[in-house]
């Protein structure tokens, strides 16, 4: 389970093409205790990830609704 292990999450992403939930990615960042500069950069990337994750989820849901109809 990838919830708190970035290495496992990366392995699962490679194998299953599934993205970890942004909540878990945020927790991974916090558990690493990055330096202030690194934390700022990771936060910028995380905000973009969170936005794109939501958009992909919305698009995927719409496709599935159409397929289920």
Mean pLDDT: 87
Helical fraction: over 70%
Poorly predicted ranges: none
How many helix segments? 3
Structural class: mainly alpha
Query: What's the story with the biggest beta sheet?
Result: none
Whole-number total of structural domains = 1
Q: Give the terminus-to-terminus CA distance.
A: 33 Å
**Number of separate strands:** 0
Estimate the strand proportion. Answer: under 5%
Categorize the overall geometry.
Answer: elongated
Rg on CA atoms, Å: 14 Å
| H-E string | HHH
Q: What can you tell me about this protein's structure?
A:
The structure is a single chain. The chain is mostly helical and 69 residues long. It has one domain. The protein is 80% helix and 0% strand. The protein has three helices and no strands. The protein has helices at 6-16, 22-32, 36-68. The longest helix has 33 residues, at 36-68. The radius of gyration is 14 Å and the shape is elongated. The termini are far apart.
Salient structural properties:
single chain, 69 residues, mainly alpha, 3 helices
Structural topology:
Blueprint: H1 6-16, H2 22-32, H3 36-68
Helix pairs in contact: 2-3
